[in-house]
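ok new one. same drill as before - structure tokens go in, u give me an amino acid for every spot. 305 of them this time. try not to just spam alanines like last time pls lmao
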């Protein structure tokens, strides 16, 4: 018997999928019987996927939209080799689940990292170095022909039109303490940094560095989640997103943990940082929103109205 798969009640008919706990249980038990006696835990839902804990040590991650669903079918094999050398905790994909019971896409079983995230418990000052060190461990050379990361393997030049459209959508929003953004300066700085050529070979990249993927144990860095984008790309994309999480006064520590980055990589990272900050403002999540405005203020790209 197929269990229910429904479109999200508040979304369009082709919007994000919702599947019941009973469907998750059926898929897990049928395909991974070694998890059959482990209790399903809390569900964690984001825009494009949801994760559910299985027992104390494992979890399942399911795509909710078709656009990136194919990534779940490749990541388990792709990440197996590079992840062997990592010293930080990671919700590493361990096995790939198949469609079934009305669920149309592949999904993954992952190691479960037990902690909060930086979206709920911001990182402490002493987390900047190990956070940077973790990204350095990820950013090892990718072999020729390695599958690209959909978020880090797109040229900045190709994002200029999208960035300008994003600025147009959010430029009239007012931030904390009655701040407004300097739209013209934002576009000018992004275009300037986006013109920086890629001066290093592709590396493995995470592709989803954000407060909701960075683990925080009372503010200590405790690892990284959300690996389905994993692939080859420009490490500047991961680094730029990380710079939104690390306040300006701690970024020297972050770079010390990361180690050497070429001047070009650091300039491209600034472009990715701006793109991610405006996306957080558009998403309108309270913590992401405040964090993004804080970075824009530090960069002198927002001022009092």
């Amino acid at each position: 018997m197929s269990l229910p798969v429904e479109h999200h009640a508040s979304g369009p008919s082709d919007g994000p999928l919702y599947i019941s706990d009973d469907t998750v249980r059926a898929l897990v038990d049928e395909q991974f019987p070694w998890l059959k006696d482990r209790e399903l835990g809390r569900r964690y839902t984001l825009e494009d996927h949801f994760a559910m804990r299985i027992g104390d040590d494992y979890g399942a991650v399911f795509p909710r939209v078709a656009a990136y669903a194919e990534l779940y079918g490749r990541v388990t094999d792709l990440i197996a080799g590079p992840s062997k050398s990592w010293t930080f905790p990671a919700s590493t994909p361990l096995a790939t689940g198949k469609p079934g019971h009305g669920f149309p896409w592949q999904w993954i079983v992952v190691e479960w990292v037990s902690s909060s995230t930086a979206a709920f418990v911001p990182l402490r000052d002493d987390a900047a170095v190990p956070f940077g060190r973790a990204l350095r461990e990820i950013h090892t050379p990718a072999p020729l022909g390695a599958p690209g990361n959909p978020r880090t393997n797109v040229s900045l030049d190709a994002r200029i039109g999208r960035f300008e459209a994003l600025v147009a959508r959010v430029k009239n929003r007012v931030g904390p303490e009655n701040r407004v953004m300097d739209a013209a300066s934002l576009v000018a700085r992004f275009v300037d940094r986006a013109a920086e050529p890629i001066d290093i070979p592709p590396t493995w990249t995470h592709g989803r560095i954000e407060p909701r993927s960075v683990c925080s144990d009372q503010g200590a860095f405790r690892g990284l989640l959300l690996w389905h984008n994993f692939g080859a790309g420009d490490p500047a994309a991961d680094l730029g997103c990380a710079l939104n999480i690390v306040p300006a006064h701690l970024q020297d520590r972050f770079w010390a943990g990361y180690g050497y980055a070429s001047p070009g990589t650091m300039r491209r990272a600034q472009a990715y940082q701006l793109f991610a900050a405006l996306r957080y403002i558009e998403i309108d999540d309270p913590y992401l929103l405040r964090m993004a405005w804080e970075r824009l203020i530090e960069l002198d790209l927002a001022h009092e109205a």
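The mean pLDDT is 93. and btw The CA atoms of residues 248 and 298 lie 7 Å apart.
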